Amino acid sequence: MEALEPADFERAARARLPAETWDFVQGGSGAERTLAANRAQFEQARLRPRTMVDVSTTDQRLTLLGSPLSTPIGIAPVAYHQLFHPEGETATARAAGRAGALMVAGIFASRTLESIAEAATGPLWLQLYWLRRRDALAALVERAEAVGFRALVLTVDAPRIGRRLRDARNGFAVPAHIRAVNLDPSLMAASHRADAGSSGIADHAKEQFDPTLTWADLAWLRERSSLPIVLKGILTAEDARLAAEHGVDAVVVSNHGGRQLDGALPTLSALPEVVAATPPDLPVLLDGGVRTGTDVALAVALGARAVLIGRPILWGLAADGENGVARVLDLLKTELDDTLALLGRPRLADLDPTAVVR
Ligand SMILES: Cc1cc2nc3c(=O)[nH]c(=O)nc-3n(C[C@H](O)[C@H](O)[C@H](O)COP(=O)(O)O)c2cc1C
Ligand SMILES: CCCCC(=O)C(=O)O
């Protein structure tokens, strides 16, 4: 059967993936309240369509941190794409290129930065965690810049890993043959075994993530790279203001797909305060629960310049590799295009808060 919506890939992926990998993807932290709330906010919001507008051409193109994109729909950073397909991140990068979409590769990518860059035909950003081993971080930043990555995305909502009960119950550990190849194996060993009542992911973070990260540390990153710096995991006006004051180039409103602080604000609810607290020239992105073209339009109307998609990309990758990811992106782009036309707001710039009732 032909896939007509991203959810069709969700079913296909579930059928293919080992149960503990499925739980790792779909799960959130704690009682999964934030995971559910991300979706609930999109489901409850309503659009206010305008009529008698010439929508013979619609346009979802934009420029983000200097890079032209065909769509405001980008790929969120996710660890270990080889959990989902043997080609891993190179398949994802090729699909992003076909769609003219941004790809954010993760620090725990299972393919080298060099091979991802070679596969990519569109803009790539690199996501970082604040590792205790700052020398490893510095080396990674240098490599990323050398092969053409265009921004650094520092994830700031993970001083430790949220309590993910599914992973703890499954004793989830990253299989030995799938590796975060851009980092020294000695830094990654804990990911590949799980202590009782924990997961390899949580144990690894406890060992390697530096929870002392504060605003003053951004200077260290600035010194090491001329690339734009993006902070991922901002949910409040206070932090948005601090990000702007510290010269950050963009922020991602994110609760890590409901995988970190359970009970944290859903991202669509946090977006307006973050947008209000940031200067107009500082791009605000959003991720968490974006599943349809309508969701993309809602986020853009409330001030997001672009959205990132996490789990649906992995569904496409698990179901059919590069072609699956390309199809998921294509479906979302088509849905957004239909939404812009039927809403009477044919360009992204036509989307503003008057398009939404919440
Ligand atoms: C399996 C999985 C792994 C993830 N790994 C990372 C990661 O390594 N770094 C990071 O910043 N975010 C990571 N995330 C969070 C995503 O970047 C993103 O914030 C989230 O998935 C967006 O929500 P969505 O899945 O509802 O679209 C991961 C998410 C999932 C589902
Ligand atoms: C230590 C790997 C963390 C991956 C991650 O961020 C996630 O699973 O959400």
UniProtKB/TrEMBL annotation:
UniProt xrefs under InterPro entries: Aldolase_TIM, Alpha-hydoxy_acid_DH_FMN, FMN-dep_DH, FMN_HAD, FMN_hydac_DH_AS
Keywords attached to this entry: Flavoprotein, FMN, Oxidoreductase
Pfam families cross-referenced by the UniProt entry: FMN_dh
Annotated FMN binding sites: P77, V78, A79, Q127, T155, K232, S254, D287, G288, G289, V290, R291, G310, R311
Cofactor: FMN
The UniProt record lists the keyword Oxidoreductase: yes
Domain FMN hydroxy acid dehydrogenase: 1-358
Residues reported to bind glyoxylate: Y129, R164, H256, R259
Annotated catalytic residues: H256 (proton acceptor)
Keyword Zinc-finger: no
Molecular function (Gene Ontology), one example: oxidoreductase activity, acting on CH-OH group of donors
Family of the protein in this entry: Belongs to the FMN-dependent alpha-hydroxy acid dehydrogenase family.
PANTHER family xref list: 2-HYDROXYACID OXIDASE 1 (PTHR10578:SF107), S -2-HYDROXY-ACID OXIDASE-RELATED (PTHR10578)
UniProt protein name: 4-hydroxymandelate oxidase
Species of origin: Kitasatospora cineracea
